[in-house]
Amino acid sequence: MSPEPLNSIMICMGSSCFSRGNNRNIEVIQEHLAVQPLPPGIELTGHLCEGHCKAGPNVTINGKMYHEVDPIVIIGLLNHYSQQRAE
Ligand code: FES
Question: Is 56 in the pocket of ligand 1 (CB under 6 A)?
């Protein structure tokens, strides 16, 4: 079963996730979106700590939280969900 098209992307801006990698991940996401914008009505949003700091940096896509996200992982996720959108 293929995943649904990208419908939301949220990045944890809590101090732990931010300092451990989401500060770089948000730059990578913004660079990706400059080339391949999100569909209309969908935005990149941030949220505060949700108590999963040990597993961070955390990024939530389509309601699914991904853990230990680094720039390579986030590029893979964005490409994966972008492909779903194109189909
Ligand atoms: S700072 Fe991201 S879950 Fe706590």
Answer: yes
Indicate the pTM of the whole model.
Answer: 0.89
**How many Å lie between the centroid of ligand 1 and the Cα of residue 51?**
6
**Dihedral of the alpha carbons of 73, 74, 80, 83, in degrees to the nearest 10:** -150
User: For 10-33, how does the pLDDT look when each residue is reduced to its tens digit (9 = 90+)?
Assistant: 999 999 999 999 999 999 999 998
CATH fold group of domain 9-86: Glutaredoxin (3.40.30)
**Strand pairing category for 64-66 and 9-12:** unpaired
What is the CB neighbour count within 10 angstroms for residue 54? Answer: 8
User: For residue 49, which of 8, 19, 7, 28 has the smallest C-alpha distance?
Assistant: 19
Q: Is 50 in the pocket of ligand 1 (CB under 6 A)?
A: yes
Cβ neighbour number for residue 20 with a 10 Å cutoff? 19
